[in-house]
Amino acid sequence: MAPKPPQDWRIYFKRSDVESFRRSVLHNLEYRLAKDQYSATRYDYFLAVAYAVAERLIERWIATQQAYHRENPKRVYYLSMEYLLGRALANNLINLGLYEVGQQALAELGLDLGEVCEAEVDAGLGHGGLGRLAACFLDSLATLGIPAHGYGIRYEYGVFHQKIVGGRQVEAPDNWLALPNPWEIPRPECTFKVRFGGRVERVAGAKAYEASRWVEGEEVLALPYDLPIAGYATQTVNTLRLWSARSSEEFNLEYFNSGDYVAACEKKILSEKITKVLYPNDNFSRGKELRLQQEYFLVSASLQDIIRRFKEGRNDWSAFPDLVAIQLNDTHPTLAIPELMRLLVDEEGLDWDTAWDLAVRTFAYTNHTVMAEALEEWPVSLLEHLLPRHLEIIYLINHFFLEKVARRYPGDVDRLRRMSLIGEDGVKRVRMAHLAVVGSHAVNGVSALHSRILQESVFRDFHEFWPGKFTNKTNGITPRRWLRQANPALSALITEAIGEGWLKDLTELRRLEAWADDPGFREEWRRVKQSCKDAVVDLVQRETGVPISPDLLFDVQVKRIHEYKRQLLFALYIIASYLWLKDHPGTSAVPRACLIGGKAPPEYHTCKLIIRLINAIADVVNRDPEVNRHLRVAFLPNYRVTLAEKIIPGADLSEQISTAGMEASGTGNMKFALNGAVIIGTLDGANVEILEEVGPENIFIFGHTAEQIRALRERGYDPGAYIAASPELQRVLHLLESDFFCPEEPGLFRPLYEELTRRDHYFLMADFDLYRACQERVARAWQDREGWTRRSILNVARCGKFSSDRAVAEYAREIWRARPVRIPAEEVYPKTFSCRN
Description:
This protein is of the alpha/beta class. It contains 34 helices and 25 strands. Strands 1, 4, 7, 8, 11, 12, 13, 14, 18 and 19 form a 10-stranded mixed sheet that branches. Strands 22-21-20-23-24-25 form a 6-stranded parallel sheet, with helices on both faces. α2 (18-32) crosses α3 (42-71), α23 runs parallel beside α24 (605-623) and α23 (567-583) packs across α30. The two termini are 17 Å apart.
């Protein structure tokens, strides 16, 4: 038993009163940072406050891990290449119930908590909705008390920092770890080796069977860093473990002493590149190889850690699926399946059939896309080079699987070809999504429409083979961050009306319906929205230099830039609005501010060109005195979690206009609706379910459905027919074709014009007139302020379904079979200080 620390060691760390918190901050400033009020920077004050919060987190963290070790419950392991965490300080204060305490303590020190929180850097470990969903799920897992561990990669630079220079996106490194990160704790004692390359040799195994052993090659060390994930209003603090690559040979002194300084560090540089950047450009062979290395690095280190923890409990292997549930967050971590088979068969000596049974019962797979490029396929030659043993295992999995398919469908060779894990048309490649389906006991989509498309189209053969394996789990968001933290004024108004139970049970928001027709409540609702819009006005002016009035309708589309999300359709609508205003000078029109933000992948030329077009349109519109009183356009650079938290509360209209059938779910639609914005959108992703919840009178739906889009494509879609039928669309396209927005760079936007008029893969031409008509309905509705406010209130009131708590509870009950573990408050301050990771 570890000796008990001195009595006063934790005296200020246990308490949650203002004085104790204030003294913790001062203690950290002086003794951790060696600063006083004269030398401390804003970041120093942030660190001092963050360390004070971390001290209180760690007490609960240790108690949580001790309870898990003592009770040996089934644990959930969430594998994801992305975690778009955002800032942690305010979120941790809210979840610990210390936000007001922190506010008052800092006020006594002459500091503003909001300004201190602004000093924190976003953790840039994700690019879009996939990573943000993972972060929401971690919050909900802890809030529900479910024993869980997240696993990811500690990218040194994360997603890039976006600058807009001359209207163009310019990528800069996002060095989010340049300053100390107060939340992470390195765990060098849990470092694992990860192998690449080498060869497979055959050796004598048990029971006279031949066994395989993966030898030689290069080894990289996986060093874990742990981040505490606090639940809301609970003692539970779970763990997010992020892996950082380190060289097994840090420095070659012999090379250095001979004067070859580059060679002395070469191995370190080559090893550590694995965790340098989120999603390296994989348009060339070395980029593909690095991307595959990242994925295997994550799953290998994580599985070794999971098995280490399982074996510490002296458990029999037959209990593995009863104590371990591994969720694959999209296709990226699918190599976990052959890696677990390698570890069980080659390292632990289990026979193939036993190992495969354990693996399938352990894994579950969430698919997040129907886009072909995201259903990863790796060249067989690359796997053979980097992971030769895994390729052998994949071939064996495929062999045994196709034998079952052949028995079920004798003579159906085409079905065997479609379902094979190996694609053989062109370059031989491994179909990772197929492997994920075959190696998991449960496969789910993330909205009702998406799950139906998976079953009827993407994985139709597999659904026919295993109808019970497929299910739907509609995504959700955490209300703690996306309403309580992002919109404190609205949160306070809601709590005043119905109490604070909604923070843990979002269906409580239904009680707001009774207030939707109350004139006084509506007035307060508008006052809160106006204050949020005032903040957006300041943000837009500061970030873009574009002045906007808070009285305008704020029409917002902020999300990852992709063609299927159709930022280009919004841009075409803005051009049409510009032309209408030019044709009708002096006409009373609904004034509108079109606010757009998002990052395009560095290698995605078309999306970067769309950003360039939006900025060119903004330049023309904002400079035109005949137009700019009624229409303003701004592109907000470097969209990230923190920016979303500031923009979303001030939005009046939320653009969710993806091509029907292509957005898996979307969670931005949920965040906007939860903050009182009204959606204009297609029947795509979770929009379908939001329509069902809020009612057709409280959302603006337009466009072709997924079924109609599929029928158009099958018939041979001709965008020219829609262009010929629309004079307005012809005028819009003429401005693109004639270089109106790029007179100094003729032909700049020609590729966009050619795509729209000749191919139009995402059906913008088919939906343009329908979209424009829907926007006219929006304008009429906006003029009825009382009616608009009622819509806004009912959108919030009917968003209860879209909580990540609900989604995670469904996963836990129906897929993972995991139960909560209660951490009693009296165990948060244990008498011993041992901790198991």
